[in-house]
Amino acid sequence: MATARTPSRIRLSPPRKGRHPTALFSSSEEKNSTLPSEIVGSGTASTVTEPSSNTRPNNSSGKLASLAKEWKGHLPPWIRTISIALLGAVLALLLYPKISPPPKPLTTRQVRQIIETHLKERPPDPTLANRAFQSIYRSLVLIRTKPVASETPSSPGKSKSSDKGKPDDTAALGTGFVVDEMGSILTCFHVIAPGGKILITFFDGLEAEGEVIYANPENDLAVLKPSVVPDDVTPAVLAGSGNLRIGDEVVAVGNPFGIASSVSAGVVSGLGRSFYAPRTGQRMMNLIQFDAAVNPGNSGGPLLDRNGEVVGVVSALFNPTEQEVFIGIGFAVPLESAAGAIGIPPW
Fold first, then answer.
1. d(CA 232, CA 204)
2. Which sequence positions are flagged as catalytic?
3. Domains contained in the chain, CATH given
């Protein structure tokens, strides 16, 4: 005998709190979910499972975030610190041009003010005479000759007057300059011509006696050997006069009237001049004429070009009177005439 089957019942779960009993599914849930085709078990209620809220499709940003978190956890702290610092520096470099405004162009007035301020703060360039003096200073010497026998002393209460600025016991006064490492000194012959004891004073005050090792009266040149030479003496830089032109700037350095290391500047007034020396009557040839001020005591001193190189030896000044003071014309012996005397080939 067949047993009648009791139809299964479907028991619906009670509605969630705050939700209307008839609104069991949302419209989206109705589209994405379907009822099961069979109901399993008799007399038991089956439940309909809703989609989980944690089940969402994966995206690229989530993957990158998880990778960055995993990478960060495996790095030591000091590497993370350096990475953050480098990243900040790169961002700063990229953002600075956009954040910082470009500088404004300077106006003509501002440029002029900057140039004027710079020129005021900058010291002036040395002059030609200053450069020439600095190049010859350590080789310059003062030369004095003293008679061997003392003259008759003057009467009591009277002093012997100085002639042309020379000290009472000085027969001649002049200048010279060191020309080599041995301390050889080139000067004029008429400075040491009176004879007697030759005293040499160097730039640092050191005094030494001098000995004549070469004399050339025809060109008014002489070479002295001092008994002692300072350690820091610097020989003069010698050059020929072949490149001199009329109008070129020249500088004369010497000891006029015994005033040590005096400088005067001028120009070349002429070349190839002739002159009769008033003291010796010797005719001197091929002289350099210049207008830099020279006076008694300058004889034997260097005549320098604009580069501070010696091109001649100051020898004489022209004055039609008997006063022997400078009136605008001086003469120098070209250094070529002294080349053989100081042991160097002529230019």
1. 9
2. 190, 220, 299
3. 249-338 (2.40.10.10)
